[in-house]
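User: I'm putting together notes for a lab meeting next week and I want to include a structural view of one of the chains we've been expressing. I don't have a solved structure, so I'd like a prediction I can at least talk through. The sequence is below, exactly as it appears in our construct file.
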Amino acid sequence: MACGQDGTDIVPDTYPDGTSGGTGTGVIEPVMPGESEFAKIPDLPISTMPTDPVSVSYVIEHRSALNGKTVQVTGVVVANWLKQEDPTGLKMGMYMQPSIFLADSASTSRNPLYDLRVLVPEGMELPEDQYMAGKTVTVWATVQGYLEGIVATYAAVADDGVRQ
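Assistant: Thanks for the context. Below is the predicted structure for the 164-residue chain, given as structure tokens.
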């Protein structure tokens, strides 16, 4: 384990899923604006706001045009971080915000840059069984998108096109 200044274990060498924190050189190489892999994905304008559910790829490829807008998104849940436990055990709140990740396909060969992280607002609890990996869902999400990235915030479950 990596240790803090007082000798307490902060970051495990391996995580429960078998992955490791890695070592590395500690040097972060900067990426110039517009040169990231994500920036190479199309970022297209829209002429009218969609009123029907859209695909995850539509949201990704229109991220700047949808910035600040709330849309219905249909996708397959490829990851579910709704029940996050504090990995440090220190109860310091140092863990990922609850989220679901949507994609157009659950295929392991899909482009992960087309996965959409949908943050769940603090204090809101979603039923984990309704967002299990492999399940297709439609949700209302508010998009925060720009050339270099995108994230969405959960707004409501979409049910027959009515925002709840």
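A couple of points you could mention at the meeting. Strands lie at 2-3, 9-11, 54-55, 70-80, 99-103, 116-119, 136-146, 149-159, 162-163. The mean pLDDT is 80.

User: Perfect, that's what I needed.
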